[in-house]
Every structure is written in structure tokens, then in C-alpha cells.
Amino acid sequence: MTIAQIDGLLQKIESTEKIEAGSERAKAIVNRILRDLFYTIEDLDIQPDEVWTAVNFLTQAGKNEEYGLIAAGLGLEHFLDLRMDEEEEKAGMIGGTPRTIEGPLYVAGAPKSKCFARLDDGTEIEQGEIFFMQGKVLDDNNNPVPNAIVEVWHANLKGNYSYFDQSQSDFNLRRTIETDENGNYQFRSILPSGYGVPPGGSTETLLHAVGRHGNRPSHVHFFVSAPGCRKLTTQINFANDPYLWDDFAFATREGLIPDLVVITDAEKIKEKGLDTPFS
Ligand code: MBD
Ligand code: FE
């Protein structure tokens, strides 16, 4: 087809937008995506059977509830992070812990505690490595933020998340921790395994079609929020992971890879006060 013919059809479609409830924003977005799609089909000479394969793929991906996962895997979610970074840089907001993607596996309403929480329900205590993390929430001026809300969630040793994995107890490996008067928080858990997309699912089908894997390095998710502060969405990773810089969701960033200190002596854990809340 000629460009004039494609643009003619696009104009015909746009000229049907007469219902008053329609928003200019929705029209602009839908029409632009449609234009890009028509041009892509033309440029790559995409065949009807390929289009219907794609339509059926999307139907199945919806049934599987995998759109969030696909958004992560296509780099769309990371792209939104880069755009938010740019906006903040332009506004002169620099420094602080980098943001990175939320992913599709957050669940609201995790049990809340002050200063300290144990995240795991104990079921993996034999196979897993106990892990402690402590941190301090600081504002723009590096002042501690008391009573900040730190929401933490991560996978178990199989790389699965509670709620989505019904074999785990409710809110296993998910907690809401309020910082103390000095902005401190601390938690105990089991060091998570990396995540892999569901075998045989839509995300895996798509990634394999383009020669990609669907693995993530081991990570822990965070939301950090406080009144008057922009909410931080981020994760941490661990340096020894083979997928550290090969994350299918592109979430690893410098500044989010804290040192892991291995302690084999139980007395040292007590000495450092890692097994009990701050006093
Ligand atoms: C995850 O655990 C995750 O964090 C992301 C971004 C995508 C899939 C699974
Ligand atoms: Fe995750």
C-alpha cells in the first residue's frame, strides 16, 4: 500500500470520533498506536495469520494475567523509570537511593510492625540462609525520617511469592515496617532465590520467540513512604548472582547492590544485635 492509502484509512478512522464522552488524550494515544501498528505491518509485510496469532496470544496472556510480567520483560516498566529519573533530574532533584521497578507481585496490607520484622514463617529455615538487613530512611537533606513506612517483599527459595503461590502462608515474606525515631528499620528473613517466569506461560512464549530468557537475579522489593515525601519504589540485589546484570526485567542498578556480610558465628549475630529489634 502507499503511505497516502494508509494515512487515508487512519483519517477515516479518526473522523468517526464524534461521541462527546471521548477524551482528546485517549484519541491521541489510540490513533498514534494504530498508526505505528499499520506502518509496522506494512514495513515488515506482516501476514494476516501472524496478526491473528498475535491477537490470540494477547487473549491468552490476559487470561493468564501476565500483562504485568510482559511489561517488565519488554523493558516497558524500566523505560518508565528512566523517564521518571529524567523528570526529577530536570527538576533538580538528585541523589538518594535509585528507584527501580515495582514488578507485578506486590500485595497491599502486609502485617505492620515498628522498627523490626521477621518476614519468613519459618518453613524454609532448614534449607535457607538466614539474612538480616538494616537501613535508615533519610530525606532530601539527609535528615532521618521517623515513622516512615518501609514495605518489603521477596520470593522464597523456589523463587515464588506468597499470595500468587497459594502453597505459602498469607503474607509470607511480606511486611510493613515503620521506622523508629532515628529513621531506622531492620528485618530478618531467608535469603531469596532468583525468579523465573512461569514455565509454559505467555511471557515465556514471547521471550523465547525472540531468543530471550525469563530469569531475574535474587532481589528484595521496597516501597518507602512518608508524609510530604515522594514514595520510593526500589529493590536490592546481591553481587554474587549469575543474573545480576542479566535480569529479564532490566531492574538492576548501581547503588542497589549492598554488600552481603556472611556471618557463621551465632555469637557474632547476638553481639551485633541482629537478632533483636533496636532498643
Ligand atoms: C518479579 O519478582 C519481579 O520482581 C518482576 C519485576 C517481574 C517478575 C517477577
Ligand atoms: Fe520480584
Textual characterization of the structure:
With 279 residues, the chain is an alpha+beta fold. 30% of the residues lie in helices and 17% in strands. A 5-stranded mixed sheet has the order 1-5-4-9-10, with no helix packed on it. Strands 2-6-3 form a 3-stranded mixed sheet, with no helix packed on it. The chain has a two-stranded antiparallel ribbon with strand order 7-8. β9 and β10 form a beta hairpin. Bound molecules: 3-methylcatechol and fe (iii) ion (FE). The site of fe (iii) ion has 5 residues, from β9.
Which CATH top level class of the largest domain fits? Mainly Beta
Q: What is the averaged pLDDT score?
A: 94
Instruction: Provide the CATH superfamily of the largest domain.
Output: Aromatic compound dioxygenase
- The level of helicity is 25-40%
Number of domains: 2
How many strands in all? 10
List the strand order in the largest sheet: 1-5-4-9-10
Q: What is the CATH topology descriptor of the largest domain?
A: Protocatechuate 3,4-Dioxygenase, subunit A
Biggest sheet overview: 5 strands, mixed
What general outline do the C-alpha atoms trace? globular
State the separation between the terminal residues, measured CA to CA.
73 Å
The ligands bound in this entry are: 3-methylcatechol, fe (iii) ion
**Count of helical regions:** 7
Second rung of CATH, namely the architecture of the largest domain: Sandwich
Radius of gyration: 23 Å
Structural class: alpha+beta
